């Protein structure tokens, strides 16, 4: 190691290179906590940076590289919503923030209003060169945003899959498997009239959920009834409204599968109005658990997939795309975990003998 530089001289990367005797690339990656740099080497570089008073001039770096060092996540927002529809966005953003810690990138949350053209908003963001990389959510089967980003050659990752012909980086929860297991669980408890509250039909994860639900019904020899499946924004108000509508059917359901906690909360409100008790008069299961449902009355049985973990993985995938790793190598599908509580303990008595279903 060379002697410390003069107190009046500016401390640059070249100063650290000279002081440590390491290469410019190694010093740069060590300052970013790059996993490819040995811990001992990172410690040497970071100790030297602290002793010499090095601080990164990000403004100068932006000018030299032409990069913004900003990564954007585009999140949908209901402009006139009086009610929450998704409990996971803050956890998702927290996970992203965690994964980007130690890098040079700043995370920016970009709201996408539901009544605006999603593609037009994305084009404006890309063409203004504000983002070095993007994360988009709520993907559709044939998503024009994905095709556009691929044409532009900008690194991106999606929270959700698509049917795009060209591979892209994505992270998703296996919603087909989740809905299948939840429906099967209810069938094994004797339920045959099982309602499902789903997100809008154009979202691919809604289609995956429908596929899993229908698969479980078919294996049990239970006919599909379109009256029992509904699509909405899954706000609490939607959950309440849909339960009150189901109560008017000649044959009401004995169990309900909700796609998120807010719809389940609204369902519980309707149960109270109808004098139904979840877990006693009707069974209720939700997905997208945030652990808040443990405090519902009764506590809600859910299928849990950590949204903070999802955010962390999305951030890691995007950093790898920025490093040039091929998108087909950056596709992660996770399985949800069953959390058994009290809302689905009701065992429905039925005279019909169900087909025996082998657990998978």
Architecture overview:
The protein has three domains: 13-56, Orthogonal Bundle (434 Repressor (Amino-terminal Domain)); 70-173 and 307-335, Response regulator (Rossmann fold); 175-304, Response regulator (Rossmann fold, 3-Layer(aba) Sandwich). It is α/β, with parallel strands linked by helices and 360 residues long. It is built from twelve helices and twelve strands. Helix 6 (118-127) runs parallel beside helix 7 (144-152). The chain is 39% helix and 16% strand. Strand 1 (70-77), helix 5 and strand 2 form a beta-alpha-beta unit.
Summarize the structure.
This protein has twelve helices and twelve strands. It has 360 residues and is of the alpha/beta class.
**Largest sheet, described in full?**
6 strands, parallel
- Compute the separation of the termini in Å: 61 Å
Low-pLDDT windows of residues: 351-360
* Proportion of strand residues: 15-25%
The CATH architecture category of the largest domain equals: 3-Layer(aba) Sandwich
CATH fold description of the largest domain: Rossmann fold
Domains counted in the coordinates: how many? 3
Which CATH class of the largest domain? Answer: Alpha Beta
**Helix content class:** 25-40%
The tally of strands reads 12
CATH superfamily of the largest domain: Response regulator
Shape: elongated
Please give the count of helices: 12
Task: Output the structural class.
Answer: alpha/beta
- Order of SSEs, N→C? HHHHEHEHEHEEHEHEHEHEEHEE
The largest sheet has its strands arranged as: 2-1-3-4-5-11
Average the pLDDT over all residues and give the rounded result: 87
